[in-house]
Design goal:
The chain is 46% helix and 28% strand. With 76 residues, the protein is of the alpha+beta class. Strand 1 and strand 2 form a beta hairpin.
């Protein structure tokens, strides 16, 4: 899942080398934490939040196939 998320995020932001991806485990759920330049946050969220919602949906669908739960948060 890490590689998938990194690939998607790097395609969507202007400064892919500045993206940092961490994760934390909580009660059977993995939450991915993204840090990026403030100028890239809006680009990644997308108009009306559609881009980040789509990425979350794709991650959830992939995780479900393996019996896992995932979340995605952007740290500011």
């Amino acid at each position: 899942m890490d590689e998938f998320l990194r690939y998607v995020v790097q395609q969507l932001v202007e400064y892919p080398d500045d993206v940092v991806i961490n994760h934390r485990q909580e009660g059977g759920k993995t939450t991915y934490l993204l840090s990026m330049r403030p100028s890239d946050v809006g680009r990644f969220i997308g108009k009306g939040g559609y881009t980040i919602k789509t990425v979350r949906d794709l991650m959830s669908a992939a995780a479900e196939k393996h019996g896992q739960k995932v979340g995605l948060e952007i740290l500011e």
